[in-house]
C-alpha cells in the first residue's frame, strides 16, 4: 500500500475512532443525566409509604375537630406515626380511645400509632383519631384540609381530607377526668361519638 494511501487510511481510521469516542462519551453522559432528571419524577410517581384511604374531617368553625380514615402501610416494614399537623389548626394530637374509670375517654397516644408492614390502622369516630385542638380556619362541608404526618424515622406523609358534617360527640377537653383523657359522652353514645 502506498504511503499516501496508508496515511489517509490512518487519518480516516483515527477520525472515525475519535467520532465514535466522542459519541460514546455523549451517550454515556446522556444516560447518566437521564436517571438524575428522571429520579424525582420516578420517586414522585412511586407509591408512597403510607396512604390515607377515605380521609375526612369533622366540620367545625372553631374549637376541636378530628380527622378520620384508614392509614395503609405499603412497605415491608412497620411504620410509626408520631405527630400530625394540619392547615386548619396550629395544634394537633394523636388520640386513642380507652376505658378510664369505667368510661370511654380519649387521650394522647403515647409513642404514636404503629402501622404494621403491609397492614393498616383505622381512625374512626369513637376510636383512634387525629385531633385538631384549636381550629383556626373553619372546616365547612367539602372544605379541603391538608394534613402532614411525621414518622418516627423523621419522614413525612401528606394527605388531604374533606370536611364532613358529623353530629356525634361534641365533647370538650376536661383535664382531671381520668388523667389526660377527654370524656366521650355516655357509654351508650360512645360508638358514634367523635374524638
Automatic annotation (TrEMBL):
Residues 183-195 have a biased composition (Low complexity). This is Copper chaperone PCu(A)C. Residues 1-26 form the signal peptide. Residues 166-195 are annotated as: Disordered. The keyword DNA-binding does not apply. Pfam families: PCuAC (PF04314). PROSITE patterns: PROKAR_LIPOPROTEIN. InterPro entries: LpqE-like, Lxx211020-like, PCuAC_sf. Keywords: Signal. It comes from Dactylosporangium salmoneum.
